[in-house]
Amino acid sequence: MNIIYLLLALSVLVALIFFIAFIFSVKKGQYDDVYTPSVRMLFDDELVKQKSDKSSSTKNKKSN
């Protein structure tokens, strides 16, 4: 029966620690951005710039 009281006290302590961490992160502004996630899917991915023809032709000559 004593183990139940110990486990109950430990679970309440862990819950309080997580609650305090949550309150701390909210006060620090961790969850302030509500606009960006809703429009992130509308942004285009950045295009990868291709290397110039000079560097690719040099690479081809070296491999031959």
List its salient traits.
single chain; 64 residues; mainly alpha; Cytochrome C oxidase Cbb3; 3 helices
How much strand? under 5%
Determine the mean pLDDT: 81
How many E strands? 0
What's the helix-strand series?
HHH
Largest sheet, described in full?
none
What does this structure look like?
By secondary structure, the chain is mainly α. The protein has a domain at 1-26. Helices cover 64% and strands 0% of the residues. It contains three helices and no strands. The protein has helices spanning 2-27, 36-39, 53-63. The longest helix has 26 residues, at 2-27. The mean pLDDT is 81. Pfam families: FixS (PF03597). The chain crosses the membrane at residues 6-26. Keywords: Membrane, Transmembrane, Transmembrane helix. This is Cytochrome C oxidase Cbb3.
Record the SSE blueprint.
Layout: H1 2-27, H2 36-39, H3 53-63
